[in-house]
Specification:
Length: 602
């Protein structure tokens, strides 16, 4: 058993809540920009005073419509400024926010509304309202649905005009640090999602701990700002939202992938929060563009120099003079253009949810964008560790946040304790007791190691370890992440539990596939489903398999693979809203493909 605790640099009063900071900042910095609202093709600044007025007006409307302290209010929307306004308005009214992914099905909406006993739902579109209407007769606590696109903020403002500041103060009066602020339903890969209750204190502690751990990102002296494009129903995006409001820096929003590059250019953020897939796509697209325009040799040389430069930063002597000169040259020719795609000001990016390959991590650091891998769960509010700009160990998820203890159990499971832990699972005492051990540590279900400096390395999921028929334990995640760095591969699922060998199910990236086909003079619109047995494509993918196999032992290597006819999506059910693969569902849905690999239907 191994354990590491970071020094406790953050203390909060027992009665500290998420709305306290808003009152303080609007008093001290009323004209500071806190939100950049998307309007048409640009962004409009919203000051603390304007944001505060919007929040108070919406909170008054909620109180006027019968929302009381402790009531649950569902919030279903894409990432947009109204999400943040309504989130803080719900807290200002003393109520509890229950996020719902905007891609949720009627069945998922029904479960969340009934389990959380939601009294009022705020949804983005009339289509969302129609989904709620489908299950309305099975959600007895739900009294009303308001639609953001149909003027929900204006409706609340009008309703709350008669609500006094004394009434709002009374609504907040009973809220303390240990009061539940939000119930986030974890998008579990099996079974019904559990409602994770997070208190005001846990969410606020996570913001302050992140600020102390990563001052280079949040310090006002560095003119911080960000563009948020991950769904705000996800706990990591919520942390960034709360950091912007509580610390005080501009937060812009982008909900449409098709406009993301343009939005980055207009918002010009100083740091980003992104999933590894975003970095993989940026790299793959840049490489393809260079090769398609006849500049492939320059890009390949620049890529090699960037990786070598980053790797040299971790050596005692640092990059040599020759490497420095090549790096300076390629910065003018290549790296500056890549940074411009991200808006031109991004120097740091936070990556979570899955590992980023070491090669890509070195590549981005080499071009001047340091990717800080971090780790956390919904149950930890959510971030609990991260690499710091001043101390990066590529391949790890950094050191614990201040005041957080990480322990590695005898079986390798990562255990966590600290003020950022969740309060429990809503109406599920059994699951709560199963999640917390006798010492108050959360059982994360992840496997990992700690080095002498407290850097945490994730090695796999406890429940996803495959045990072959020969008794070999294989962690699928490292192989899967290596495979997904290949531009043609969208998803990779490694299988082999109780089987004679390890195999893989692959899906194709449609955008990369179109480019690959065009480069070979083949119709770019050829459906992926017709290419699953294409010899040329299979040979390309076999190269990716061989590269991944080089990182593991023979017993752990992938012996066979098959290409599935369609990609995994949230809508078709193979992915959770946080883009994790529902392994059991995939195994059931593609049982015939598994049979073709192993020759039986076990």
């Amino acid at each position: 058993m191994r354990e590491f605790t970071s020094p406790a640099l953050v203390t909060l009063p027992d009665d500290a809540t998420l709305t306290d900071g808003l009152f303080d900042l609007v008093e001290r910095r009323p004209e500071q920009v806190v939100i950049r609202r998307k309007v048409d093709d640009g962004f409009v600044d919203v000051t603390y005073r304007e944001f505060f007025d919007l929040v108070l007006a919406a909170a008054g409307g909620l109180v006027a419509r019968g929302v009381g302290p402790g009531d649950r209010v569902a919030l279903m929307s894409r990432t947009r400024y109204e999400w943040t306004v309504l989130d803080y308005a719900i807290w200002m009214a003393g109520a509890v926010t229950v996020p719902v992914y905007e891609t949720s099905s009627a069945d998922q909406i029904e479960w969340i509304i009934t389990d959380a006993e939601v009294t009022l739902a705020l949804v983005e579109t009339e289509q969302h309202a129609a989904l709620v209407a489908e299950v309305r007769d099975r959600t007895p606590t739900l009294r009303e649905v308001l639609v953001i696109d149909s003027g929900a903020l204006e409706t609340l403002r009008a309703a709350g005009a008669a609500v006094t500041s004394e009434q709002l103060a009374a609504a907040r009066a009973g809220v303390r640090g240990d009061s539940v602020a939000t119930i986030i339903y974890t998008s579990g890969t099996t079974g019904r999602p559990k409602g994770c209750e997070l208190s005001h204190g846990a969410l606020l502690f996570d913001v302050k701990a992140a600020e102390a751990h990563l001052p280079e990102l949040f310090s006002s002296q560095r003119d911080p700002s960000t563009l948020l494009f991950l769904p705000l129903a996800h706990a990591f995006a919520r942390l960034v939202q709360n950091a912007a409001v509580q610390i005080g820096f501009p937060l812009a929003y982008s909900a449409d992938v098709s406009t993301l590059v343009a939005d980055l250019g207009k918002a010009r953020p100083s740091y980003l929060l992104a999933a590894p897939r975003i970095f993989e796509k940026v790299h793959a697209r840049a490489r393809h563009t260079a090769h398609a325009s006849g500049k492939g040799r320059i890009f390949d040389a620049a890529e090699k120099a960037a990786i070598a430069y980053s790797q040299a930063l971790d050596t005692p002597g640092g990059p040599g003079i020759g490497l420095r000169l090549r790096h300076t040259l390629f910065d003018r020719l290549v790296y500056g253009k890549l940074r411009a795609v991200l808006g031109g000001r991004v120097r740091y990016a936070i990556s979570g949810s899955a590992p980023l390959s070491d090669r890509l991590n070195h590549f981005f650091r080499g071009i001047g964008v340091v990717v800080l891998e971090g780790y956390g769960l919904t149950e930890t509010a959510p971030a609990l560790s991260a690499n710091r700009p001043s101390h990066v160990k590529i391949g790890t998820v950094g050191q614990p946040f201040p005041g957080v203890t990480v322990r590695i159990a005898d079986d390798g499971e990562i255990l966590v304790r600290g003020p950022l832990l969740f309060s429990g699972y809503h109406a599920n005492e059994t699951a709560t007791k199963e999640a917390i051990d006798a010492d108050g540590f959360l059982r994360t279900g992840d496997l990992g190691t700690l080095d002498d400096e407290g850097f945490l390395r994730i090695t796999g999921r406890k429940k996803e370890i495959l045990v072959t028929a020969g008794g070999k334990n294989v962690a699928p995640a490292p192989l899967e992440h290596l495979l997904q760095t290949h531009p043609l591969i969208s998803q990779a699922m490694v299988i082999g539990d109780r089987r004679p060998f390890i195999a893989a199910l692959l899906t194709l990236d449609e955008e990369a596939l179109e480019r690959w086909l065009s480069e070979r003079g083949r119709p770019a619109d050829t459906p992926a489903a017709t290419l699953t047995e294409d010899p040329e494509l299979l040979a390309e993918l076999r190269g990716a398999i061989d590269t991944a196999n080089a990182s593991v032992s023979h017993a752990e290597s992938i012996k066979k693979f098959t290409v599935l006819p369609m990609d995994f999506t949230v809508e078709s059910g193979e992915l959770t809203p946080s883009l994790k693969v529902r392994r059991a569902l995939v195994m059931d849905k593609y049982a015939d493909a598994v049979t073709s690999l192993y020759g039986d239907r076990r």
